[in-house]
Structure prediction request, 282 residues.
Amino acid sequence: MKTILLMMLMTALSCVPQKTVVKPTSSETVVASPAASQPQASPVQEAVSTGPYGLNPGDFILTFSEDFYGSALNKTIWNDAIFYEKSNSTINYKVSNGSLKIWPARDTSGKFFNRTIDTDGKFTQTYGYFEMEAKLPRGKGTWPAFWIFNHIGDRRPEIDIMEAYAGGGPSSGWSDASLNPTAFAATVWPQGSTTDPAGHKTLVTSDLSKGFHKYGLLWEPSKLTFYFDGSAFYTLNVSMNDPMYILLDLWFGSASGTPDTSTPTGEANSFEVNYLKVWKKK
Prediction:
């Protein structure tokens, strides 16, 4: 039995999504317009749109909606750990006042740990529009992400809608001298992140920790279009047809570096998500 369990563990780890960052270059970096980079009001204070932000609502049917209006994470919709990990017993997330917050914290061993909130086994969809409104954390090591993914046999199709690396600093192109996130990236991995991506785009923005912004993906049979605050900033012609589930996470490392004593911990430095909605095209 121990041998079988070890083989299962080795197989699972070999298929773990690596979420390797692609370093931005001038040819794949764009700058958000000043209007697009202004923080948007929280849906707690504004009427909820009947369709994707900035698009024609008549073209879409709502299939998934989470506004985080409760007092706890809805476990019928969400898991609080990715499939190859156990949930860390140190709680660094909460649902309250109409948002989900995930913040940097050290566990009982004294180490920073990754937290993933996902719909694995509870909601998947092929094609449609995926939208999140969120405010991002700052500081060394912080690596928030909004992505869709699946583990199907040994395949790991993945679309990263938003990844940010505040710890990179100004020379990296990801943040300013105070390690506030001033860019994010979208990356497409048809066969998983252990292979080369099909495409990647970095969008330079204002400070994404100062207010809420909308991050969106229109997934069509032969094309992906990525949106920021209702404006398209990247289109990639690629075919991906596996059903995928939603992930919201705060991990550490990659281009953001290793978290340290300078990394702001606690709820005040949260990856704060106001809503997550998914539609299908009519």
About this structure: The first strand starts at residue 29 and ends at 31.
